[in-house]
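Readers of this paper often ask what the protein records in our data store actually look like. Such a record has a labelled line for the sequence and another for the backbone structure tokens. Nothing more is needed to write down the fold, since each code stands for a local backbone conformation. The remainder of this section carries one protein's record, kept here as part of the documentation.
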Amino acid sequence: MTDLPPKPATTPARPYFSSGPCAKPPGWSADRLNPVSLGRSHRSKIGKQRLQYCIDLMRELLKLPDTHRIGIVPGSDTGAFEMAMWTMLGARPVTALAWESFGEGWVTDAVKQLKIDPTVVRADYGQLPDLTAIDWTNDVLFTWNGTTSGVRVPNADFIPADREGLSFADATSGVFAYDIDWAKIDVATFSWQKVLGGEGGHGVLILGPRAVERLETYTPAWPLPKVFRLVSKGKLAEGVFKGETINTPSMLAVEDAIFSLEWGKSLGQGGLIARSDANAAALDAIVSTRDWLGHLAADPATRSKTSVCLTVEGADEALIKKMASLLEAEGAAYDVAGYRDAPAGLRIWCGATVDTADIEALGPWLDWAYATAKTA
């Protein structure tokens, strides 16, 4: 029998490396949430105040200009992005970029549900398509940071200022972790469960002025469910962007988001970005010293600093599942197996709510889990 390698002496203090819902901010506990709105209607004065405060914090932390509106909507990032697609697409041709599973999901919605026959520009997992080849007379759908592939756009420079179409950015693993040029973004969506470490179920929809114009001048050919309706009598339903949500939100989730946003405000946007950068650098140092580990995203310029996807030499789905199970059983790392549609590998969340010391402590545990899984 082959001797198993010894277990590392140090375990990550907070072994939460899931890519969504992600680790809570340092110091979080349920009893630190403000209960002021719990048990109250979201339409009450205090309910509306807390929803508006949450929106104001997001605007401040993202440095979002007054030209852009922020709304809290149902269905997490998926609901927010589908709301944008269903209400605005069809006015002009569409180009959909897909280099991981969620981008492919938007392609499926456009082709099979909306039946708008988009131009589809694809790249394999770990790669980015040619961003210079995009026809910006079209509306363009893309993921800012591919959560399941670990590939991101380097910046917004590929989006022209004089574009005719709208830019739709699924930015759920990107906001708060990158400095986004909001002048280039007409529609952006995200959920609190990523970089903020918030709870799932609620999405955030950001609309620039060109998106508002589209909503007020174009009516799609297909019927819209109530939860997607952003226009009333030909005008934007402004209340949605002032805390008057379309459906009933969880005020507990809102208070949880406020806690995370206040924590983020104490660091500033630069502080959140710095924490993500430090975590990604620490994980890269682990990868660079192990010949059995690699990055799925080969180009550092387009490699995610939040959802980092790793290749494992000789791995198949069974080996990755075994490694993840071993790490979870030891309380060393939770939820690190790659996404089910992605190539077999590991996925380590490096967003701002993770502590760099825990990333550094993870390296020896990955060695142990890999050696143990191969000999088991």
